[in-house]
Amino acid sequence: MSVAQSRMGPMSTFVDSLARLGDALGDVVGPMLGERALATSADDEVVAALVQGARILRWAEAILVESAAQLAERSAAAPHADRPETRRGCASVAELVQRATRVSRRSAGDILAAARAVREDVAPSSGERLPAELPHMRAALAAGHVGVDGLVAVAHVLRGCPAGRAGILAADEELAACARGEGADGAPPANADDLRTMALVWEMHLDQDGAEPRETRALRKRGLTLGMRRDGLVPIRGNLLPEVAEQLQRGFDALLNPKVDGVPVTGPRFVDSGDDAEAGADELDAASEAAADIRTRPQKQHDALAAILMRVAGSGMLPTLGGAAPTLIVSVREADLVRGRGGATLGGSSEPVSLAVARHIACTGAVERVVTADNGRIVAIEIQDRVFNHHQRRAIGLRDGGCLIPGCHVPFEWCELHHVEEHSRGGPTHTDNGVALCWGHHRTLDTSGWEIRVRDGVPEVRGPHWWDATGRWRPTTKSPSRLRDALQRRAAGE
User: Fold this and answer.
1) Distances from the Cα of 469 to the Cα of 292, 304, 315, 320, 466, angstroms
2) What are the tens digits of pLDDT across the range 152-178?
């Protein structure tokens, strides 16, 4: 009997058993979703279903890992034409795993990474099975204590550790015990994030001098580059040192933190206008306010980085360029700006940008009007400073409290001041014509559907139709003192 034939019998029985398990599981899952069986269950039952589902998932992932390990082993030992992936029209084992499991490419890579860590290779000379790279984690996988993400978290850290085999095995044993809930501290079974943290601790313990070589490599590889502009975007690539990335993340967190100091308000932060017609208007709930900001997390982080850069550039702390602070320069023909047609250019590039960029920059900074003769000679230079002074800025900050758009929680210190009536159309640089907007909402104000006006010195917003179909103008603020005043008025029945 050939080796292939000897495999068919038990393998066929094994696959049949899995098929029966799958059918039985389908009989449970079908009613659970189709008939919403959990909808009438108590909370404890729902949580128990979650726990059992995760237990089944970990065992299912063990099947995927072991199957992928077998495919990788056979692929490495066979001529190219006889490899499992080649005979099935795939370019690699990873592609075969992805096609067979219908997971993402990244998930297929994780399955193979886990397989490498627990695969028991065969010694070429003796044919004996060799211990896995992480034998204790393999046992934890087989017992359903750890899944792919936890296994990959451990393997990724320990694989890069230059410690000897004995040290790796000690870490493997302890981490597997933690996955089972049998660690030294008696903690419950560790999740994937916990296992990664513990693995990093073991790495530092086993390689106490390892941080220095890593530091040298990191310093050598650090860098940041801006690519060529394409489709209105500039790609950014590079590697940040950990402390730089952490500081940037803290900046993001500070700007994007939804917590607002002062009296907590569960709904939109609208201030009663005092108008009887609007006094009884229905308030939108907190979910509606959150939905008002439809930017994705990466988009919010982009806008937070823009705010940080603009703030630093205007701080006066950077070295000068040509005798002046590093200033963003946008060039636009006056006729184009007045008509609202045409384009503009940034100082360091000849490629056009939209007029929205010019309007945004002009709203927040000084405008230098350069008059040229037909032959290009500069005839006159006029400077219009439309920057709110620090007294006006403080006053607007006390009134608005932060970005005026509902659902946005960028604090006032990181906001720009927007001329509600454009300065180019006669709008004054006055507190009654200035409101606080974060960089992102200021930059997209012309296209986002939000409208702003100031009535009797109080800013009001009107949201896009999808957010508020009534089209009602609503006073709004993030100022804690004004919020308390509004709450007190509502409590008094005013």
Assistant:
1) 13, 29, 41, 49, 6
2) 999 999 987 877 889 999 999 999 999
